[in-house]
Amino acid sequence: MDVKARQERPGGAVVALASDHAGVEACLALAAALREAGHEVLHLGPAKPDPVDYPDFAARVARAVASGQAACGVLICGTGIGMGMAANRFRGVRAAVAHDEYTARMSREHNDANVLCLGSRVVPAARVAEIVRLWLATPFLGGRHAGRVAKIDACHEPEAGKGA
Q1: Of 73, 92, 132, 157, which one's alpha carbon is 20 to 30 angstroms from that of 7?
Q2: CATH architecture of 3-153
Q3: What is the pTM assigned to this prediction?
Q4: Active-site choice (110, 117, 145, 156)
């Protein structure tokens, strides 16, 4: 099932977006492009490029996706790495860092990623919306990949960090 089919509303999916200060400009431009394409956008901040801590904004998007408020999310920081690490701490979130169309497509086809993390210092601003558009349109292939995704989802331990 592709991302657009989940949390569907007339015209498109509900997409949660956020960034840190490095990604504000790209995130605001992406929000406009997604709205123009018919998606409902939950822009979860920030609105200005003042310094902020990326884990706070990754958590907002991760909670929106995990709770079902949004079908999927997009996070933008300098590299995408910090946002991805923070978002993946939430049960039900499968965040993937992508730097181009190929990695974005594979994150959906093979990993059923529901949060895409991009780096504003890595991905040219002119390509962000196109990468996200492709990601939203790419279905999860299921099949042999479904069992692996189930194993990813099962990795959350109730008391992570205790004993081993």
Answers
A1: 157
A2: 3-Layer(aba) Sandwich (3.40)
A3: 0.89
A4: 110
